[in-house]
Amino acid sequence: MDEESCGWCRAARLQFDRVVVLGAYRGELREAVLRMKHPGSEPLSAAMGRVYNNYRGDLVASLRPDVIVPIPMHWSRRLARGTNSPDILADCLARYLRVPLAAGLLSRCRNTLPQNNLSPTKRFRNVRGAFQLGASYLLGNVRVLLVDDILTTGATCSEAARLLKQAGASMVGVAVLARAEGDDSS
Q: The pTM is what?
């Protein structure tokens, strides 16, 4: 966990090792993240990926990831939404860092409830066991960079990191556009 993590993050025993955040989930960044969740938002997601690379690319590179993995969306939600912004952000990062993108390494095997209206404890329960590893991936001593759009309690990324480390990943970092603070977590 990074040294700038909030009190919740330090107390929650999150399974990932480091977080690299573009900014706080408020103002224009919040509006951009929310717009990225709608159909037709691919150009905005790609633009935000370039912004992230410009401001945080060197810091993410210092984590020395071997592979980049987007947080997956359940197929039914993907069908309804039409896009998954972490896929686009991860692709931008992979190209910038010249690191392989492993979009199929994780899948969401269970359609979880939307996290935004759940308490922190319920968020962790909601995502427990929600991911599975692709059968063709070997993670012995691999450094993984997970990519998501927003980090609130860290439940989703922590669950994905737990599974990746169980499979042998030596380090799991997280790259996100925004981190929620205080009451802005919904």
A: 0.85
